[in-house]
Amino acid sequence: MRRSACLRFSSRCLVLGFLPVLAFSTGCGNGLARLEGQVSLDGEPLRAVDDIRGTVMFQPVGEGAIATAKVDESGRYTVNTGSKHGIMPGDYRVMVKAVRIIPPKDQYSMPSSSMITPAKFAKPDQSNLTVSVEPGSNEYDIAITAK
């Protein structure tokens, strides 16, 4: 009896331990692919630190939802579509926008911001950035220049 209970417990642990690995290895679910990468500005990682905020947007060439990603403190991003992790496979126009947050002058004012990336990269028809997303895992590094 005791050996049987121990085997059942071990089997359950093995199955439950394997499920997260299986879920992660099959992608994001619902047909969504994983897309991540590094954003650099003038050869340096675009780091979202202190007063800097960066966003990457992916506009489908055809029909579909826009996918977005926030740039993190190391200059990396991982794409989400709405509240779901991932992006539908297909062709996208890419937009990058980074701003510096300017603190309010007093307690009655709102903070403002100034662009640190050139304005053309925030417009899908002017950025000249495109990516083809394949099913599975994708890496797309984005290098832009302000000069």
Automatic annotation (TrEMBL):
Keywords: Signal. It comes from the Bacteria. Residues 1-23 form the signal peptide. This is Carboxypeptidase regulatory-like domain-containing protein. It comes from Botrimarina hoheduenensis.
